[in-house]
Write a structure and sequence with these properties.
The protein is of the alpha+beta class and 240 residues long. 16% of the residues lie in helices and 59% in strands. Helix 1 (6-25) packs antiparallel against helix 2 (216-233). The chain is elongated and about 70 Å long.
């Protein structure tokens, strides 16, 4: 008594190899993402009479802003050029990114600038406050993201620094927000004099998206499937 299974083997084993090749060759990746922003608001508690005030925001280009990634994308809120910055109006600089596979490193640098010019014939006393919100959020497998704020006057008699970090070393998500203020900065402008207040914001992120092994449940499914296929491919015994 024997089994007439040569034809079955010729079909069965290549099928097994093909199925395993498909599943083994299609490893998924744990995508990592970040989303950060800095929102700045300048306000006066003194009169603006006699002052010419001109403000702007600019995201700097390379080498201050860059993306190095095997397979990733980044989206800043602003492109090239100057954007208006006015008193009592919040302006947000944001950057978000996604790492689909491999290593990812990005940095984006934005500069807020507010210039005061005394166009009157009298000395003007100015009281200014900078309020800000810093936010950093990461999700995925491995991610480290920062927001840095550095603000100062032209002669550095007014200056300050703040920062925020969100770090992820296991698959999860994390986010942090900081609300801050510079306090009141008071200065005087003689007729024809000017003062420039600046704030630099740097948003930097490093991420990693590594291959994810095929889940154990999938392997169990494949083993069971192969057993069923093997059983069904058997033929009834022939009688000598």
């Amino acid at each position: 008594m024997g089994f007439a299974n040569n034809g079955s083997a010729r079909f069965f084993y290549p099928t097994v190899v093909a199925i395993l090749s498909v599943f083994y060759g299609q490893q998924a990746h744990a995508v990592s993402v970040f989303s950060n922003y800095a929102t700045l608001t300048y306000s006066l508690s003194s009169s603006a009479d006699g002052l010419d005030i001109d403000g702007s925001f600019e995201m700097l280009g390379s080498p201050d802003s860059f993306l190095i990634a095997d397979n990733g994308t980044v989206t800043p809120s602003h492109g090239a050029g100057l954007f208006p910055l006015t008193l009592d109006t919040p302006l947000s600089f944001s950057v978000s990114g996604q790492d689909n596979a491999g290593e990812f490193k990005s940095q984006h640098y934005g500069v807020f600038s507010l210039n005061f010019f005394n166009s009157s014939t009298a000395v003007i006393n100015v009281d200014l406050t900078l309020n800000y919100i810093l936010h950093a959020a990461v999700a995925g497998e491995t991610a480290d993201s920062d927001v840095y704020l550095d603000y100062y006057s032209s002669d550095y008699t007014f200056s300050g620094f703040d920062s925020l970090n969100a770090t992820l070393s296991v698959p999860f998500s994390e986010q942090f927000t900081v609300n801050g203020s510079s306090g009141v900065f008071s200065f005087s402008l003689n007729p024809g004099a000017s003062e420039t207040l600046s704030a630099d914001v740097k948003i930097a992120s490093t991420m990693l998206a590594a291959p994810v092994p095929l889940p154990a449940a999938v392997w169990s499914f494949l083993v069971g499937l192969l057993g069923i296929l093997g059983f069904k491919k058997r033929k009834q015994p022939t009688i000598a």
